[in-house]
Amino acid sequence: MLFRILHDERSGELSYVLADNDAREAVVVDPRSRDLPVLQALLGERDLRLRWVLRTHQHDRLQTRELDRLRSLGAPVVQGEAREGTHTVADGERLPVGNETLRVITTPGHTAGCLSFVWRDRVFCGGLLAVDACPHQPHPADPAALWDSINLRLFTLPDETLLFAGHEQRARAVSTVLEQRRWHPFFARQTRDAFLARVAALPTHAAEAPGHNTPSA
């Protein structure tokens, strides 16, 4: 299997490429449209067919052309928010990539329709752990749902499960369930009520308010 991480140093955003080299099929997780030339070159160099474009979450109200650009990759775009031209999935559904599969788990909270994708011992969880660190959204869309997604879905996985985030935090791209359960600044040793109160006190940033049209490339 091929596994690549693409990192945007400006925003701290992370994308992932997985491919079954024998079957010549690939999947990209949380791609950014400005990386399309890099992705297309990588796929072409290895003669890979893109099977899925997986989005753990999206901020298309800020990046209004992002979805259309990602659809130009020619593969189904999977995301939790149903929109024209996207592919909706159910909790527990398995998406084939060559001889491998990725399992969908619904994990709302960062945005209303967040998804996470499980592959082997790894989970691509997007912005779930970036409670106050997302460059596009400084406040979870649904804090109560986020608490449940983290504690009832993510933290019930085996301790050694690797968590690959959509945004680097403190110069890190990957952690484990054990580490986050014990030391995450918002979730470790916190009650649900304490978490909700802390999130409610988070500041908002006018530059990222709804309707602000951040360029997507």
UniProtKB/TrEMBL annotation:
Q: GO:BP terms for this protein? A: glutathione metabolic process; hydrogen sulfide metabolic process
Query: Please, which domain of life does this record's source organism belong to?
Result: Bacteria
Output the Gene Ontology terms for molecular function.
Answer: sulfur dioxygenase activity
Provide the Metallo-beta-lactamase domain boundaries.
Answer: 12-167
**InterPro entries in the cross-refs:** Metallo-B-lactamas, Mito_Persulfide_Diox, RibonucZ/Hydroxyglut_hydro
Mind telling me what this protein is named? Answer: Metallo-beta-lactamase domain-containing protein
- Provenance organism: Hydrogenophaga aromaticivorans
